[in-house]
Amino acid sequence: MKKVRPDHLQELITSFANKDVYIHLETTNGSYATHLNEGFFNAGAFIRNIVVKYELGKVAGDSPHRIGLKLPSGWIYAQGITHYKLDEHGRLLMAGLDSDGKLAVALEISETPFTY
Amino acid sequence: MIKKERHVLVVFPHPDDEAFGVSGTIASYREMGVPVTYACLTLGEMGRNLGNPPFANRETLPQIRKEELQKACEAMGLEDLRMMGFRDKTIEFEDDEKMVQLITDLIDETNPSLVITFYPGLAVHPDHDATARAVVRAVRRIPETERPALYTLAFANNTVEVLGQPDIIHDVSAMADKKLATLKAHASQTVWMMRETEKKLAAQDPETLKWLNNERFYSYQWSNDFE
Description:
The complex is a heterodimer. Chain A is mostly beta strands.
């Protein structure tokens, strides 16, 4: 994955608009966050292989970027995106990596299902 | 002194769970000619570590960790690796009885004299605890006189408060090279840690040497069952 070039990422996000696409969306602090720092409130969520059709997608802000996808009756939002890649399967992988390179957030868009 | 076993079954949810505290033990059994089966439930698909600098992404991580796991098993001399196909972070949400049955099937097939897993409720990661619950439940169903021994790993911050000190201590100093090779095989997950560890080993840091040379387990006490 490379550091986000906002103009290029914007083009890629737009290329998936108005199609049925599979989404992977995730935020995480890692399962050890509370073990390593007692009192840390560990929250996170993920969804995988949810099919949506968005009408408008935007890259916003300076790095780390925010991504918003406007759905006919709702939204998908991710904050903290630093890296991206269009992989060999034509899937748009976006991630927010912290200063140690650890994944904190991921948003992925694909026309075919992600593996299990 | 490591007791000779007929067959050892190791059950953990993530590639690398075996590396930190059991790889010296596994390598010792293999050198003694004891067959070891390692059932690894997931491929650690949801790991946050993607290498530093990152060489993996969320979608390539499973394949990379699968290859790392295979290399780690080679380093330990372990030939019977079972990758069970579950997804990282989801073990506790699977059907409990299905998980017990999965372990029961592994036990029936391999007929182990020793099973190694985590200690339920004291293993920090929800997948660790869920795996441990399934293993303890499966072993509990075996009539007492036929039950394999059950060694467990616990590392929650309150472990000593709850369980006291581990009663099984394996001197694995002769396996130090294999243990380090096992850890290094899991490069995507351990590259940060190994840099520190190697510095500490070079400086003969007593805590790090103790960790490298000894592996400590709680033999599961059926009189003090977790449920």
